[in-house]
Amino acid sequence: MKGDNSMPALLVFLLLLELHFAFAADEKAFIGINIGMDLSDAPSPTQVVALLKEQKILHIRLFDSDQAMLLALANSGIQVTVSVPNEQLLGIGQSNATAANWVARNIVAHVPATNITAIAVGSEVLTALPNAAPILVSAMKFIHSALVASYLDSKIKVSTPHASSIILDSFPPSQAFFNRTWDPVMVPLLKFLQSTGSYFMLNVYPYYDYMQSNDAIPLDYALFRPLPPNKEAVDANTLLHYTNVFDAVVDASYFAMSYLNFTNVPVIVTESGWPSKGDSTEPDATIENANTYNSNLIRRVLNNTGTPKHPGVAVSTYIYELYNEDSRPGSISEKNWGLFDSNGAPIYTLHLTGSGTVLANDTTNQTFCVAKEGADPKMLQAALDWACGPGKVNCSSLLQGESCYEPDNVVAHANYAFDTYYHKMAMASGTCYFNGVATVTTSDPSHGSCIFPGSGGRNETFTNSTALAPSESSTSHGTPCHFSHTYAWINTLFSSLLFWYAFPL
């Protein structure tokens, strides 16, 4: 109709949106690390920075603006996100002058020597400190104004991390929306992020999603373990396939923002991880699972896969966290999210082959898959039978008279079969599990003329197989208490997930 410009305007909008995400797709995702210091024997800031450099960690997030740490980071080149702690939020949100003083003391005094690139204003304020919610956007605006006055606004972004529990009905992701109670805060907050070119900070914890799901979420789906296409979760509205919880939660935030008509604010994940130890109520807080989750997460982020809704668009992520914090209050798992102990020794060996140089504690090329000590002999035999059968491992070396026949027992034979399968699958995380009877070790199990794959004794080339190793089943669990997350969306999840996968033995 003459004079109706709605269609051209719509086309311009769609073109701009496409250009925005095309630009975002060109950006490379990064892995960062959160640094908490609730340690009884805390390393000095200089020691922390030395560990970061040794591990080639170039992006960190501090939960405060510790002056000694900021000084130690000077001239390191490490990109730093500093934080306004929740206890300082009320003062900053009610006074422009207080915000300006905070920026002068904690930002201006340290740049450019310290490479500060973002300010996280508060942490999970809407759920952890709801009485401060009305002044959250004011605090962000006051901080940003102070950066503008110091000509730092183009270099330093301002945002605030959210708990994923503010997203309701998050599966399928296409029907997700923010808790409408927070609309008076969320709408101006998103307008601020959009107008300043900042990003939506989101904390994503598949561990808690899994724990709270009453077995509706399989462990494999939470850990990024591979799923066959017919076992992936499918969003019936978009027909997008989801192979892991992480992607589903990130896309739920994109859909929730679009429900409020914000379609060009990128997501950055400010916290994600998996605890390596827990009590009897958290049996899945294990070193193996923490290793699998974080290794797969790092690879997923760095290969710029993006999410089903925005493939190829970077989802940079900060792992929670650098150190185990033994002084943190709460359950055992609360103290065991770290990649390193206070001395800088790795809690476990990450499997990062092909993921670049980040986190140099990767020694995957010297790792082997063997039977776990004390494993049930019947389960070992079943796993051995699987490896030499459906797993397509060449077990001829285990025949009588061959190099690996002796010692003739199930443990020794399982060691060889497990490790052969593990290396055939390129040492991918989750391929040394075998229903809990296998584990990764750095000790070469070769003996005599029986040389294991990956050993310095020989150099073998393997072809990937489509068979996948038996994987862990979900177990019962108790209620965790980390950042007081509540997952109201789980009720919807029960009826919405279309396909789930469980490996047979």
Automatic annotation (TrEMBL):
Pfam families, per the entry: Glyco_hydro_17 (PF00332), X8 (PF07983)
Span of the signal peptide: 1-24
UniProtKB keywords: Disulfide bond, Glycosidase, Hydrolase, Signal
One example of a Gene Ontology biological process annotation: defense response
SMART domains xref list: X8
PROSITE patterns the UniProt entry points to: GLYCOSYL_HYDROL_F17
Gene Ontology MF, one: glucan endo-1,3-beta-D-glucosidase activity
Gene designation: LOC110792255
Name of the protein this chain belongs to: Glucan endo-1,3-beta-glucosidase 3 isoform X1
Domain X8: 367-452
Record family assignment: Belongs to the glycosyl hydrolase 17 family.
Record's GO cellular component terms: plasma membrane; plasmodesma; side of membrane
